[in-house]
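Sample entry was shown:
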Amino acid sequence: MTLLNAYLSRPSTQKILHRKPGQEGFSLIELVVVIAVLAVLTAIALPNFLGVSDDAAARSGQQAVVTAFKECQVRKARGEITGDFTQADIADFEISSFNATLGSLAAKPTSSKACFTSGALNDFVAYPKVNFKFPKFGITDGGSKKCYSGDTAQTTTYNVGCDAAGAAGAWGASEGNWR
């Protein structure tokens, strides 16, 4: 028996030689089912992922306004009644201070980083850069935290971090507390 005949007579070689075309790999139906399952999982997971990034953006706005407030409180405790707070560099909010009551502010405050006006501690606000995408988060000079969502004409604000259960005010359609 020659070497070629010995190789061809082996059972493993015979199995390969007698295999019919199309018996290896996945069928078209199997591939379509896998793609459909992946599409359904993506459709479920994508909105949750986008919601997580919006939650993180709103929480960063809250944290930035708290940090500005605390920085100015430290200045006050040291007896310094002048100076500006350090602006946090966040993508979705602008942090400002102003010397008015939070609920009476009808428009976006002018960008100010001053901790004090005439020796009194200012109020602070995290104002969304895209109007009505997020609530406005504010802290009064006494430390009271308020949020304002939507406006009187458009109440489609993404209300993350704001219960917005209160009455309408000049600064937004609903005034609420931070969550």
The CA atoms of residues 63 and 74 lie 16 Å apart.
